[in-house]
């Protein structure tokens, strides 16, 4: 029975679709001409009735619930899948907006299906107020995190602060590329090719660094010191050349070099240059530029110092033994 229900609810099972249509038409015809009245009277009889508080639960009502659930949610699945395919084809709309439209469409479709089911069962829609208090308590206690993550996901999609393809960094130092934003969590692919599922609520309550929010430019910082006595203008020129010669170095903004400080053991410089796509990575360009700087310094006799200490020993008077 369970496998049959799964097959009937599967939107892409064309045989199941045809079977449900034939059954629905057949039941409707039999009910219209009164052939099902003996069966409905028997299922609604007191012998098959269970009293729960002030309500009488009949076998007929249970059959209606099962039939309506299969029919309505099967049709809802078809409509939801059809609408999702159509929305995904709207290429003029950004991916984040399409995902938001899909979620809104699915919520609307299932809400309408829920109302139709209640009306089909003959329930008074005004009676839903009876369950509003219980639903509120359930959300407040058991479904608090689920509802919070769901609403946070909708806020993320509407604000577009974090969208698919962005390179982000969390407050705990975790960084990666946003691959998918679901109803409860957002999947992040880290630089180590690991998938991390992060609750949507964390993106609303915590501080998030989005490296690609406005553009994909990324700055590479290099700190380097040279020995005292070096030609500082030559050092400046070599640092700028090393950055500009790299193929991934942007021409705009251009590479910058600064004389930062006169340290205890070295004269310290700062080199900044930008890469066009930070998602591709910054470590490889930084490593290759450092190799280039090392080679240029060796060719021009510029030394990179290491910490040194001069120790002066004062000779004292002769040791005496008492």
What is the radius of gyration computed over CA atoms, rounded to a whole number of angstroms? 35 Å
Average per-residue pLDDT, rounded, comes to 75
Binned, the helix content reads 40-55%
| Proportion of residues in β-strands | 15-25%
Q: Spell the H/E element sequence.
A: HHHEEHHHHEEEEHEEHEEH
Principal-axes geometry comes out as elongated
| CA-CA gap between termini | 106 Å
Task: Give an overview in words.
The protein has 322 residues and is an alpha+beta fold. The protein has three domains: 122 residues, no CATH class; 50 residues, Roll (SH3 type barrels), CATH 2.30.30; 82 residues, 2-Layer Sandwich (Alpha-Beta Plaits). The chain contains ten helices and ten strands. The strands form three sheets. It has a five-stranded antiparallel sheet. The protein has a three-stranded antiparallel sheet with strand order 8-10-9, with helices on one face. A hairpin with a 4-residue loop joins strand 9 and strand 10. The N terminus is likely disordered.
């Amino acid at each position: 029975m369970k496998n049959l229900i799964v097959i009937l609810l599967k939107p892409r099972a064309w045989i199941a679709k045809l079977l449900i249509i034939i059954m629905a038409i057949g039941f409707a015809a039999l009910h219209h001409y009164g052939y099902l009245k003996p069966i409905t009277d028997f299922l609604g009889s007191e012998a098959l009735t269970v009293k729960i508080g002030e309500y009488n639960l009949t076998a007929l009502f249970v059959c209606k619930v099962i039939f309506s659930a299969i029919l309505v949610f099967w049709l809802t699945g078809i409509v939801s899948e059809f609408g999702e395919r159509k929305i995904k084809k709207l290429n003029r709309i950004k991916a984040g907006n399409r995902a938001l439209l899909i979620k809104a469409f699915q919520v609307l479709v299932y809400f309408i299906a829920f109302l139709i089911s209640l009306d089909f069962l003959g329930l008074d829609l005004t009676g839903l107020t009876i369950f509003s208090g219980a639903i509120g308590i359930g959300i407040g206690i058991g479904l608090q995190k689920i509802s919070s993550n769901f609403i946070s996901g909708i806020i993320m999609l509407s604000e577009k602060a974090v969208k698919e393809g962005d390179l982000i960094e969390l407050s705990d130092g975790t960084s990666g590329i946003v691959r998918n934003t679901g109803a409860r969590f957002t999947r992040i692919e880290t630089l180590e090719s690991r998938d991390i599922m992060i609750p949507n609520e964390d993106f609303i309550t915590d501080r998030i660094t989005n490296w690609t929010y406005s553009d994909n430019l990324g700055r590479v910082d290099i700190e380097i010191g040279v020995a005292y006595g070096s030609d500082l203008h030559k050092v400046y020129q070599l640092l700028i050349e090393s950055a500009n010669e790299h193929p991934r170095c942007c021409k705009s903004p251009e590479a910058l070099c600064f004389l930062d400080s006169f340290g205890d053991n070295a004269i310290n410089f700062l080199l900044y240059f930008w890469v066009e796509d930070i998602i591709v990575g910054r470590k490889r360009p930084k490593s290759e530029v450092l190799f280039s700087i090392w080679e240029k310094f060796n060719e021009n006799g510029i030394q990179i110092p290491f910490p040194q200490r001069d120790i002066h020993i004062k000779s004292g008077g002769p040791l005496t033994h008492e």
